[in-house]
Amino acid sequence: MQTLLNESIRQIAGQLQNWRRDFHHFAESGWFEFRTATLVADELHRLGYSLKMGKEVIKADARMGLPSVQALQEQEQRAIQQGAKVEWLPHFSGGFTGIVATLDTGKAGPTLAFRVDMDALDLNEDQTHVHRPYAEDFYSCNAHMMHACGHDGHTAIGLGLARILKQYENRLTGKIKLIFQPAEEGTRGAKSMVEAGVVDDVDFFIAIHIGLGIPMGELVCGKDSFLATTKIDVTYRGAASHAGGKPEEGKNALLAAAQATVGLHAISHHSKGISRINVGVLQAGTGRNVIPDYALMKVETRGETNEINEFIYGHALGVIEGAAKMQNVEYEIELMGAAQSSKPSPAWVDFIYQQAQQHVPELSSVVKSGRQSVGSEDATYFMERVKANGGLASYLIFGTELSAGHHHGQFDFNEDVLAIAVKTLATITINLPDFDAERHQ
Ligand SMILES: [Zn+2]
Ligand SMILES: [Zn+2]
């Protein structure tokens, strides 16, 4: 069996690299994944998966941090010019760039779901010869959009896994769902798919990431440190006035935002775990001699648990309101992103660990839980929903060499990780019936 699988993986290795480099070249940031989504849909359809797309898998009003209607239209046109498969485009139009592909084996058994994300970052890619994507001519052709987190690799892994599982369909039982998620960056997309119910029937769930500081060849079977987070844009609106002639007629939005910024950073830490708050952007004012009538703040809170994040966020709302009262200005808060904290299911991590140890010699090191790194991930919404329904969930990290840190203009990774990931995930899927039978004894 393993020899057979090795041969199948060897046969798709080149294609994995082609997919990854193609997605890298045509990088599309969150909710703009029009070209990517059409190519993914086309391939999965060709393989014989049954597809649900767009509004069937994304709840419109649960999307966060959605770009403007105009920007969505422009990007859709851009995607057409860049080779999107137009027959699939209507499903994704308007920022509904998600896909769930199901392989129903027709045999009784559990439902296993994998989630990969497809979005790039709002970032300009390095264009110097030390950067391999530039030197080898697959750097992003879209300004201010770059795959600097490895999601191009995740999408390629998802497609590679789809091909392999189709080849081994007669060995599988139950249903396999492949979830291709938009807008993970800024934790904006997952909630809308969870609220559309895409994992409500899922018994076993896996989300993956490559890199994250884990060395090449190492697998973390259950990352256990995600911070819950809430991301908001706050706008203050006051009244402009002549700063010299009629200052008393002004309502100062800049001062409200400045006072809020200081107040937000003064919110207490929490004794029960990690907490964070950051005002990352503050823009205000129009001219030197005008009382500023407008201010924008981009704020995020984080907490080691959902409760700690809610503590910080609750206080933040009080500070924002208080600052508005101090300056007699109006304010508005828009939710731009959110994620939960989540822990992997121990029994599921044990099974993944055992499978990787026994059947994937390409992995030089397999560990159950990763070193603490404090980030957030909206895959946690899927994990928490699956666990709430009695299922098991985990988050896997496939280590790889990086040329620069995540979200850096020179980010690139060792593409050998793609085949290793596909092999590991395929192995878990093929051997899942044993684990499922054991659980029900
Ligand atoms: Zn990222
Ligand atoms: Zn990422």
UniProtKB/TrEMBL annotation:
Key word Hydrolase present: yes
Binding residue positions for Mn(2+): 149, 151, 185, 209, 407
Protein name as catalogued: Peptidase M20
SUPFAM superfamilies reported for this sequence: Bacterial exopeptidase dimerisation domain, Zn-dependent exopeptidases
InterPro entries reported for this sequence: AbgA (IPR033845), Amidohydrolase (IPR017439), Bact_exopeptidase_dim_dom (IPR036264), Peptidase_M20 (IPR002933), Peptidase_M20/M20A_hydrolases (IPR052030), Peptidase_M20_dimer (IPR011650)
Cofactor(s) listed: Mn(2+)
Recorded GO CC terms: cytoplasm
Organism: Xenorhabdus stockiae
Domain named Peptidase M20 dimerisation: residues: 233-308
Keyword flag Methyltransferase: no
GO molecular function, one term: para-aminobenzoyl-glutamate hydrolase activity
GO annotation, biological process: folic acid catabolic process
Keyword list, A-Z: Hydrolase, Manganese, Metal-binding
Cofactor: binding details: The Mn(2+) ion enhances activity.
